[in-house]
């Protein structure tokens, strides 16, 4: 008898297991098939910083959450509808996030007395009533996988490792996911290991067949494709989008891209990706440390290339002296800071928004520079292009503040029309610009206040450069008080002038009579937007705005803030943007701050916003 198919508009699934159980790969493959099917989606990978935490322990739990729907969604979801728990640790670590009625699929083979004791279970939670109120499917995933692979010449350990593919096959059947992409992926990944390939393909198909034939799963589910604007889409992570945006900026400026970088979580994927694109004129240098990486990037900028360096918070600290040198020499440099939880080493795989003040003020002296922040994984592409545009046009280092949530999360990305991307003109100096055929390396452009960019070796354009203060035109060393005051104000004025070259703050206020504005920046956009939608559906009047440019602020920001009685600023820090807004605009904004290493939950944030509205009324 054919099984029942139930229509759903959205589903949140979380795969959880030990670090060695392949949960990130499983989640990624389910995501790729969901993207190819045409659903809108958002993901949240969550894994330990340790390369291999003790097996079966709570610190070693790795999870991957996917929210997919037949309509536009903004977040990976607050609470999973389905939890796939590969062992007791995965169950215990994630059970508190599940709403009553959620589906729990557990790998019963791992619920041994020893595994239970490792995580503090005195009795088996599968039998003691712990899971009452949930829809529990107890499946011996490990032993069923080993049995399915009995005819394949591999070790028992290798057979057991394929249990994640069995789980993937089962979930793919449950939610009618395509399978062709995963099959092709496995054939490519294990092309030189035919036995391992056969094992993974067989396990994947066995999981699908189990769902099709067992009486334990009487219903499968269908989530129809979302209606998205027409175009060509692909699934993309924030780090991948950043790499593509840097390449696009390089191509639109005609400058070869040089990346000087040192591997650091969660930014390393940008280095890995850019190293694959030599055909686009990209050169990557994995330096011995953070200081060498940024130094090489600045040297490349001096030589006429697009200099880029990537890092996270601890590396950003080390780079700041050289970033200050880039401010003084007024050379284009893009610094991508993928923020993570701190201080010090902190929580390397968890997200935060705690580097804003460091990006603005973490250097000695008056050393202003532009700061931009993407709002979603796909938006990392546009933010990277914008960072390149500002750096090249204004001859300045630019900091792009991404974060771990955006870097590792993914969503559908509509490929842009290349001709629609901005043309970025490096405008190299080609000849003398001063009296008597002299070259004045700090003579300013009247509109941007940018100085000439003279490539070394260009005849007649020899000039002095370095970190000591420059004469306002000749670039000669100058200790004159009046000249230093002029140069400090000129460098600041150049950054301030960018406000004329960026879009004004766009405010969403459908009713036009909201008293409350919620203002965010960076990776909080999805959570804030989802929360605002909930408040509006409940009848609340609320306006929303989001900042990409954090220095300088858009020219109309002050007027926007003064338009509303109350301004709420949610941040994954202790109030850094709120501090800036209070100091700059004398507006007593309401900060909502959490630093848990996780994005805001939409329901939680909606409750906060509704309370602010209710207090005012």
Secondary-structure class: alpha/beta
* Mean of pLDDT: 96
What kind of oligomer do you see?
single chain
Tell how many strands the DSSP assignment holds: 21
Estimate the global geometry from the Cα principal axes.
globular
Q: Give the strand order of the largest sheet, numbering strands 1, 2, ... along the chain.
A: 11-10-12-13-15-14-19
| Strand percentage | 15-25%
Q: How many helical elements?
A: 20
What does this structure look like?
With 617 residues, the protein is of the alpha/beta class. 36% of the residues lie in helices and 19% in strands. A 7-stranded mixed sheet has the order 11-10-12-13-15-14-19, sandwiched between helices. Helix 9 packs parallel to helix 14, helix 11 runs parallel beside helix 12 (313-329) and helix 17 crosses helix 20 (602-616). The protein is globular and about 90 Å long. The model has no long low-confidence stretch (mean pLDDT 96).
Task: Based on the model shown, name its key terms.
single chain, 617 residues, alpha/beta, seven-stranded mixed β-sheet, six-stranded mixed β-sheet, 20 helices, 21 strands, globular
